[in-house]
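2024-03-11 09:14:02 DEBUG pipeline.ingest accepted 1 chain
2024-03-11 09:14:02 DEBUG pipeline.ingest length=96
2024-03-11 09:14:03 DEBUG pipeline.predict start
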Amino acid sequence: MKNKRLVALGINITITALACSVTYAKHIYPAEIMGRDLNIPGLGWAGHVGISNADGFTAEDMMQDAYLVTEVLNEPVIGQINSISNFKSRSKYWGE
């Protein structure tokens, strides 16, 4: 009986730890530099960077989570503002 309770406690602690790690992921604020592999075979190590941003220009706006990335790409429209999820999905993301 004691072993069953110990196993149940261990499972509950593990589930709680996993849930908290997802809930408390690092926030990305406006003006942070974000990096990922350069999307050219053999040159991924060279890296690609973008600057996170969100709507607004006041000091209070800088404390909200960013959801956009300004980056320069080798595409017909060179300077682009994309979502953070788009930035992370193009190649290996260097953040958390």
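2024-03-11 09:14:41 DEBUG pipeline.report The chain has a mean pLDDT of 84.
2024-03-11 09:14:41 DEBUG pipeline.predict end
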